[in-house]
Amino acid sequence: MNINRPRGTTDIYGENIEYRNYISNTARKIFEIFNYKEIITPAFEHTTVFSRSIGEGSDIVSKEMYTFQDRKGRLLTLRPEGTASIARAVIENKMYVENLPLKLFYEGNMFRYERPQKGRMREFWQIGVEAIGTDNPIIDVEIMWILNSLFEKLGFRKLVFKVNSIGCNKCREKFLIEFKRYLEPRIEKLCDDCRNRFDKNAMRIFDCKKGECINILKDSPEIYSFLCDDCKDKFKEILECLEELKIDYVIDKTLVRGFDYYTGTVFEIISEDLKSEQNALGGGGRYDNLLKELGGPDLPATGFAIGVDRIIMLMKQLKLSYKKDRELPRIYIIAMDRKCQFHSLKVLKYLRDSGIVCDINFNNRGIKKEIKLAEKNGYSFVIIIGENEIKTGNLVLKDIRKFKQYSINWENEKEKIMEFIGESV
Ligand code: HAM
Description:
By secondary structure, this protein is of the alpha+beta class. It has helices at about 15-35, 45-55, 60-65, 85-90, 135-155, 170-185, 190-200, 210-220, 230-245, 290-295, 310-315, 340-355, 365-375, 385-390, 410-415, 415-420; strands at about 35-40, 45, 65-70, 75-80, 100-110, 125-130, 160-165, 250, 265-270, 280-285, 300-305, 330-335, 355-360, 380-385, 395-400, 405-410. Bound molecules: histidyl-adenosine monophosphate.
């Protein structure tokens, strides 16, 4: 019987939970400042939500989706990303009748049947942002600004912010004619997948990771040179605003991103410290046609998502800490036996009601061992409750970092605990 977790998934606990919460809390604070509101959507959707949005020719739809039939034969898919679900939810709940733009954020687990390796999982966690209902370039700037602030706040300093524009439908139409003209004489050298893509969806040839196809693409025409005046102007405006905000960027004319829904400006944040193909920590861009293509109103939109698992991996590699806002003093109560445990309840209640992080020993390993354990688990104080303490009504509060101890009469001076640990009730 196989009772291990499925390949490409992970159990998250201990220090990784601290990192995750730190990333999530940091992101949430920034979202609040920029006025983004949370949305939670189902972990699975009707398959068409993704196949129509991300594109039939994309790697995700053609090879990586976890698709299954439910008991009534409906075709469902575990979400491989968040954008399509958000677009579906905005349309279905008619959220667009409220003030536009809608500014939304989400956190959730995503599922892609990829080959698991360092930084690439089959179940992974994203935090994302979507702004729906305006094509004003200032919102593209805002989205990139949030992304940049988030990485700055997390302590990253050496990331590369790549930007490009893949134009509107008109630009892409012109580009594709030239692109196909370039590929035609080289078609035999493309891999089977790309030969297929050539007919169905040539843009997706840019997603290919195979050496021969990458070589062919090196000299191909670039979408950037086919931008119409409107797309060029918008892109220029965005770059000027980024400069005004002192957000460093590099234009990467090869950046197209692996989803059909993108139009106009796209971007990615890369870490050169991650020496692998999986060095993208986040990415996004404009998707002006998606809502309409899913049967909704014609609303332009833009957004990004970050990969939480990869960020944790890099934070650990770079020794970036997950700082707690304020390190609360923590008290560990050591009760010497069951009777003492009962007497400890009132102390525990008093401390917990006062907002102090505290715990009690559930086994008695002896005072020395318990104190060592408390220290190891980040407690700075212990309170020992034994026969003597019950008899005298006095508690011993030990500061295990500074090797000090205080005797406190429970009935008359329990507030002194707060004084000694530097907290007011
Ligand atoms: P994406 O680039 O596919 O974009 O994913 C965003 C981030 O999720 C990546 O940069 C990476 O850090 C992380 N990620 C992706 N796949 C994996 C994986 N298999 N294992 C671990 N981490 C992974 C999107 O998903 C778009 N929905 C972003 C977006 C939002 N565009 C507009 N709005």
